[in-house]
Structures are given as structure tokens and as C-alpha cells.
Design goal:
With 113 residues, this protein is of the alpha+beta class. The protein has 2 helices and 4 strands. The chain has one domain: Heat Shock Protein 90. A 4-stranded antiparallel β-sheet has the order 1-2-4-3.
Length: 113
């Protein structure tokens, strides 16, 4: 796997896992610790990398729940956070999402260029 692809996957997975931890069971200490899990299934076929990512975090559909993209706003005028999904979508195409039985299911494909 090319170094560029490895780097992109590392960034994307770090962002996804950070979101899962921040928004998963137990993120609000008043709710108790709750059990959580993350599943990642990856396939590589030539230059195409696809992966399924499943977590038990708060329902979040990137097709319609994304906050405004503030990457072009000067840093001193931005709130902290909110850049994870724009970064993920910079590197990946989100080709499917669904929420069922308390789980977010994301289908992502690394962009070729």
C-alpha cells in the first residue's frame, strides 16, 4: 500500500475513533460508563481501499448532520473542534450510512487522488 494511502487511512481512522470515543456511551458521565465497541472492516483491491466503520456513538449521519465547514474561517474566529468530518471527507467518499440497533454504519472509500 502506498505511503500516501497509509497516511490518509491513519488520519481518517484517528478522526473516526476520536468521534466514537467523544460521542459514544459514557461520554456524558451522568449517563454512566456504558459499553462501547468499534468495528472496522477493510478491503483493498488494487488501488481501491474501501472500509466499513461501525460504532455505538450518538446517531450521526454525515449526509445531513454536518455542521458548517469552517476551514476557511480564521482560526481565532472558529469554535474548537468540528473539523473531523471535513477532514475525513477530504480523503474519503462516504458512499453509505445507516443507523440501526444503536449503531452507526459508515461505508467509506479512499479517494483515488
Amino acid at each position: 500500500m502506498a505511503r500516501r494511502v497509509e497516511h490518509a487511512l491513519q488520519i481518517v481512522l484517528e478522526e473516526l475513533i476520536t468521534n466514537s470515543v467523544r460521542h459514544g456511551p459514557g461520554h456524558d458521565h451522568s449517563q454512566g460508563s456504558g459499553a462501547s465497541s468499534i468495528d472496522v472492516h477493510m478491503t483493498v483491491d488494487g488501488s481501491t481501499v474501501k472500509f466499513a466503520y461501525v460504532d455505538r456513538a450518538t446517531p450521526f449521519n454525515p449526509h445531513c448532520d454536518l455542521p458548517p465547514d469552517t476551514r476557511e474561517v480564521p482560526v481565532e474566529q472558529r469554535d474548537v473542534g468540528g473539523l473531523g468530518w471535513p477532514l475525513i471527507l477530504h480523503y474519503c467518499e462516504l458512499y453509505e450510512y445507516w443507523y440501526v440497533d444503536g449503531e452507526n454504519h459508515y461505508g467509506l472509500a479512499l479517494k483515488a487522488n
